[in-house]
Protein: UTRA domain-containing protein
Amino acid sequence: SPTEKVTRMKRLRKADGTVLALENSTLPARLLPDPTAVGDSLYEYLDGIGRPVVRALQHVRAINSSASDAALVGIAPGTAMLLMTRIGYLEDNTPIELTDTYCRNDYYDFVAELRR
Structure:
């Protein structure tokens, strides 16, 4: 709903202390009144409250990092990044999550296997 209140979370995804990605998630505030309750996994949190994401549509594209995003992930402004935009859906096909993940290109690659 255009008038529904939302919760926005901004998280840095790390491995061994190195920032690999910046993640911005938006969910209905009624499902996530306290973002600190999430812990490491948003989907585990949603499972725990009985609202599991059962499918997601994800787009991947190349972008140049903004100065602010570059500073957060430790790269030079304008450096190429992969942007993954995901919409997660509940069992009844209600969209429940919008997440943009800005991935460092020196730590991420994506592989697609196509079959006939």
